[in-house]
């Protein structure tokens, strides 16, 4: 019985082999595979290392610069990097295999091994989701380096979001994330210790590392508004009042303070009287009002859009 099974398997394999050898489509496919560097030249022992995986492969296949691991991060995890010139170091990609890979990808050795290769245009019209964290932000040393660069070189909008009346951590964390994404100049909160709360960090997803924040307690909000008014800011509040301007009709000034009310009570009366304008988001459903974070995000986006479009 065992011999009959082996004979049957042998006949099946022979039939399959004959088909693969004679069928025109399979012959063309096999020849194409045999032309590939990875089937013909790639040395699994000499070529397959960390530098090849995280730096050379993305370069060969035109991966976006923001998705490649940079030299700072690469040095921390792999001390024996591929040299940028003709000679290669022990333990890195073999020179012969590397040249073959370059030839197959129609590139040059200098292009493949350059520290900061020029980005290449992706000619594929397909749409892909691209919510990634750049490699350079994945290690703490790179975060510290990037954070310092952001602080010194980034020009922020003249929008101050006053969230000192907002109590709930999810709303504050969401506001921090929104303000950072849309490049607001400052976010005030009632207590800066909220940034140490794990619930806050889980929603802000590192935005607190980049977003300028200031502690302004509820009793100090009036004085803060007065100070910003003297600095030339227009004081705006997000609230439904008898004199509110619909959001789509409001012309945001460049220097703008956006005051957010409490989750349930809204903007207190004594602060309402200090404002130059109140803004209202048109609503068409039955529910009375939007969540404070959602409302603020809509306004922050509208402010940013107006600044971009002039």
Helix-strand blueprint:
Layout: H1 2-22, H2 24-35, H3 37-40, H4 50-60, H5 71-77, H6 95-104, H7 109-113, H8 140-153, E1 159-162, H9 169-181, E2 186-189, H10 198-204, E3 213-215, H11 221-230, E4 234-238, E5 245-246, E6 256-259, H12 269-272, E7 277-280, H13 292-309
Parallel strand pairs: 1-2, 1-6, 2-3, 4-6, 4-7, 5-7
Helix pairs in contact: 9-10, 9-13
Organism: Umbelopsis vinacea
Keywords: Methyltransferase, Transferase
Pfam family, one: SpoU_methylase
CATH-assigned homologous superfamily of the largest domain: SPOUT methyltransferase, trefoil knot domain
Across the major sheet, the strand order is 3-2-1-6-4-7-5
* Count of structural domains: 2
CATH architecture of the largest domain: 3-Layer(aba) Sandwich
Return the average pLDDT rounded to an integer: 78
Estimate percent helicity. 40-55%
Topology as H/E string?
Answer: HHHHHHHHEHEHEHEEEHEH
Question: Total strand count, please?
Answer: 7
Q: Cα distance, first to last residue?
A: 84 Å
What is the global morphology? elongated
Biggest sheet, in brief? Answer: 7 strands, parallel
Structural class: alpha/beta
Kindly list the characteristics that best describe this protein.
single chain, 310 residues, alpha/beta, Alpha/beta knot, seven-stranded parallel β-sheet, 44% helix
């Amino acid at each position: 019985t065992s011999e009959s099974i082996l004979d049957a398997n042998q006949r099946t394999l022979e039939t399959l082999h004959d088909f693969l050898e004679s069928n025109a489509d399979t012959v063309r496919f096999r020849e194409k595979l045999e032309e590939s560097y990875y089937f013909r030249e790639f040395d699994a022992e000499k070529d397959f290392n960390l530098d090849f995986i995280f730096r050379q492969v993305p370069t060969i296949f035109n991966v976006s610069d923001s998705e490649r691991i940079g030299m700072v991060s690469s040095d921390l995890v792999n001390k024996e990097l591929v040299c940028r010139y003709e000679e290669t170091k022990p333990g890195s990609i073999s020179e012969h295999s590397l040249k073959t890979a370059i030839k197959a990808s129609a590139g040059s050795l200098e292009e493949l091994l350059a520290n900061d290769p020029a980005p290449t245009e992706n000619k594929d019209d397909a749409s892909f989701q691209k919510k990634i964290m750049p490699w350079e932000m994945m290690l703490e040393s790179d975060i510290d380096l990037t954070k310092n660069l952001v602080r010194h070189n980034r020009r922020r909008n003249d929008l101050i979001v006053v969230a000192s009346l907002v109590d709930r951590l999810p709303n504050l964390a969401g506001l921090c994330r929104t303000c950072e994404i849309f490049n607001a100049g400052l976010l005030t909160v009632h207590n800066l210790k909220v940034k140490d709360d794990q619930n806050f960090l889980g929603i802000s997803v590192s935005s607190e590392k980049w977003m300028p924040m200031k502690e302004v307690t509820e009793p100090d909000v009036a004085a803060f508004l007065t100070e910003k008014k003297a600095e030339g800011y227009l004081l705006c509040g997000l609230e439904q009042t008898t004199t509110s301007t619909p959001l789509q009709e409001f012309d945001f000034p460049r220097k703008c303070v956006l005051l957010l009310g409490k989750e349930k009570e809204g903007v207190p009366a004594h602060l309402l009287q200090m404002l130059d304008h109140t803004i209202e988001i048109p609503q068409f459903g039955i529910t009375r009002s939007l969540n404070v974070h959602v409302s603020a995000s809509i306004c922050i986006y509208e402010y940013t859009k107006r600044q971009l479009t002039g």
